[in-house]
């Protein structure tokens, strides 16, 4: 990825315009001098219990008290019943791996992590969860292997999230 | 009573890294070609429906900018978003505008200028196309990653191998070489695919479609207007649309054998087949040619099964027997597909309609040569356009015959 600012500054200084040559085609490009920082703020009020749970090492799902439908990710409203009366239930953590991938080419905001494995597991409670799978050797991954879902701190940021580990460890 | 709707003109830009044009100039290439194809002027159009996912390009109002540049002002316009199926979603909107009698002549324009942002930003934005907090924020999913989850699941269930997937890339690159509008013009081998680097295991670079700039346009008319414009209208016999879960974790496809594909694609196909009076289990024998959404090799394999071209787990047989090459049971993506023709997100659905219209008219041979022209016996063609990873699904059926003769 090219560094917008340096090239833009240099071009303006040299040519009076933020014009660059595209590396391969040599076609002229005008580099916008406006860079937009984009950081979203997501409302958590209706599922705050989930985040409180993470702090206590628990991963909650919700279950509609009326129809019994289970939700993960947890949600506060049941579209079936048009009710919002949910029971918050912590997952016991036992699951079975349904599929996985290892991400080699990462998004811009995840470039600082080592290649990571993402898996989906079916939990004992019936809901399915997507999360990273931490395993010392990816060759040990087997279809339907037993995994545990645990809370963890994600470094280097240090925030609490959840991940799968093999059941044996 | 709904009006029958016909395609009376199509246009298509060159796909690729289009550093030579801005979004409206790119749109112009497809719009002007479609207008010339129908012998119309921009002022004749009554509505412009623009399929554009956007985010990576500067213009926030692409429908307006393209309307102004292409000369359709002051007619109405709207931008439609359905991720990688935006083109088909836009076609559905325009189709319904004409079918309902709201207008008699409308254009669908699919356009995407992805390279206004550097590739890592594009990868970031496509990776967010799921349920943002639960799959992207903490787990950094990517578009190849989502499809890789399906590929792994398919491997675990049916013994699919990476070299099997490579065969799909080989086929689509083979046909892209003949398509003058395609991004890639290089034949590849199974070994080339296997030696390319991993993007999201088990998918490698040559299992993936490229990032692409491009546009395609389709002019739709009511029967009375269509008859004045052309002696050979192509009719829309049915469109099916379906939405899948935002969270891939909620997909039953990862659980049971019978659900191994994209549930939304199955639903969209069944809806479209019902409208066009096609039996799901006999679908492969009802079409002369199909364009399916092969953003990744695994996606084309799942499409064979989701569309009822074969039973679950038997897509590999179709492939190994070369039944999806031209001359086979059902030629698929013989314009190169997304995989090698390129995948400008919002334009892809319209690009499929362009290919299939030319195929049904027997004019594709003039564009790409006789080897890429399907034999037209049944007079029907199918477009299967997926947004995200089965988040949106659109199936469109085109025919030489009117839906209500």
Question: How would you describe what is shown here?
Answer:
The complex is a heterodimer of chains A (169) and B (405). By secondary structure, chain A is mainly beta. Chain A is built from 2 helices and 10 strands; from the N terminus they run αββαββββββββ. A 5-stranded mixed barrel of chain A has the order 6-7-8-10-9. Chain A has a 3-stranded antiparallel beta sheet with strand order 4-3-5. A two-stranded antiparallel ribbon of chain A has the order 1-2. The model of chain B has no long low-confidence stretch (mean pLDDT 96). Chain B is built from 15 helices and 11 strands. With 405 residues, chain B is of the alpha/beta class. Chain B has a domain of 133 residues: Peroxisomal Thiolase, Chain A, domain 1. In chain B, a hairpin with a 4-residue loop joins strand 10 and strand 11. Chain B is globular and about 55 Å long. The two termini of chain B are 14 Å apart.
- How many alpha or pi helices of chain A? 2
CATH class of the domain at 5-118 and 211-229 in chain B: Alpha Beta
* Helix/strand class of chain B: alpha/beta
Identify low-pLDDT runs of chain B. none
CATH homologous superfamily name of the domain at 5-118 and 211-229 in chain B? Thiolase/Chalcone synthase
**Regions with little confidence, pLDDT below 50 for 5+ residues of chain A:** none
Q: What does the main sheet of chain B amount to?
A: 9 strands, mixed
Q: How would you name the oligomeric state of the polypeptide chains in this document? A: heterodimer
Label this structure with key terms.
heterodimer, A: 169 residues, mainly beta, OB fold (Dihydrolipoamide Acetyltransferase, E2P), three-stranded antiparallel β-sheet, 10 strands, elongated, B: 405 residues, alpha/beta, nine-stranded mixed β-sheet, 15 helices, globular
Would you kindly provide a brief summary of this structure?
Chain A is mainly beta and 169 residues long.
């Amino acid at each position: 990825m090219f560094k917008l600012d340096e090239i833009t500054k240099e071009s303006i200084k040299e040519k009076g315009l933020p014009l660059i040559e595209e590396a391969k085609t040599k076609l002229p490009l005008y580099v916008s001098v406006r860079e937009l920082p984009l950081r979203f703020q997501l409302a958590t009020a209706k599922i705050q219990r989930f985040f409180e749970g993470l702090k206590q090492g628990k991963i909650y799902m919700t279950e509609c008290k009326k129809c019994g439908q289970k939700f993960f990710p947890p949600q506060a409203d049941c579209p079936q019943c048009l009710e919002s009366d949910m029971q918050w239930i912590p997952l016991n953590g036992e699951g079975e791996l349904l599929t996985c991938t290892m991400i080699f080419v990462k998004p811009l905001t995840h470039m600082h992590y080592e290649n990571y494995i993402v898996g989906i597991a079916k939990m004992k409670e019936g809901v399915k969860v997507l999360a990273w799978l931490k395993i010392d050797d990816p060759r040990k991954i087997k279809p339907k292997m037993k995994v545990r879902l645990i809370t963890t701190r994600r470094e280097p940021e240090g925030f609490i999230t959840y991940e799968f580990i093999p059941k044996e460890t | 009573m709904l009006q029958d709707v016909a395609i009376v003109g199509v246009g298509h830009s060159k796909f690729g890294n289009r550093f030579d044009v801005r979004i409206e100039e790119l749109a112009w290439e497809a719009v002007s070609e479609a207008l010339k194809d129908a012998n119309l002027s921009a002022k004749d159009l009554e509505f412009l429906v623009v399929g554009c996912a956007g985010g990576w390009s500067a213009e926030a109002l692409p429908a307006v900018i393209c309307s102004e540049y292409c000369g359709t002002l002051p007619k109405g316009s709207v931008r439609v978003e359905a991720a990688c199926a935006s083109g088909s979603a836009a076609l559905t909107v325009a189709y319904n505008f004409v079918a309902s009698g709201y207008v008699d002549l409308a254009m669908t324009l699919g356009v995407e200028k992805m390279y206004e942002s550097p590739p890592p930003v594009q990868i970031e934005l496509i990776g967010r196309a799921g349920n943002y907090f639960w799959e992207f924020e903490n787990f950094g999913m990517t578009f190849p990653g989502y499809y890789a989850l399906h590929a792994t699941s398919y491997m675990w269930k049916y013994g699919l191998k990476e070299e099997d997937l490579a065969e799909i890339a080989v086929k689509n690159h083979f046909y892209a070489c003949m398509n003058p509008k395609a991004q890639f013009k290089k034949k590849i081998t199974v070994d080339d695919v296997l030696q390319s680097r991993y993007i999201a295991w088990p998918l490698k670079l040559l299992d993936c479609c490229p990032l692409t700039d491009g546009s395609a346009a389709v002019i739709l008319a009511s029967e009375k207007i269509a008859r004045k414009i052309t002696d050979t209208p192509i009719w829309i016999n049915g469109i099916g649309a379906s939405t899948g879960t935002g969270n891939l974790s909620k997909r039953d496809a990862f659980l049971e054998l019978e659900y191994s594909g994209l549930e939304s694609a199955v639903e969209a196909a069944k809806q479209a087949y019902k409208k066009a009076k096609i039996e799901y289990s006999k679908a492969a024998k009802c079409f002369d040619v199909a364009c399916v959404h092969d953003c990744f090799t695994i996606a084309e394999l799942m499409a064979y099964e989701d569309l009822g071209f074969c039973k679950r787990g038997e897509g590999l047989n179709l492939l190994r027997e070369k039944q999806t090459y031209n001359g086979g049971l059902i030629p698929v993506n013989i314009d190169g597909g997304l995989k090698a023709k390129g995948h400008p997100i919002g334009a892809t659905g319209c690009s499929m309609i362009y290919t299939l219209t030319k195929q049904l008219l027997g004019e594709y041979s003039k564009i790409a040569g006789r080897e890429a022209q399907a034999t037209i016996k049944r007079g029907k063609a199918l477009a299967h356009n997926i947004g995200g990873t089965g988040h949106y699904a659109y199936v469109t059926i085109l025919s030489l015959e009117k839906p209500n003769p």
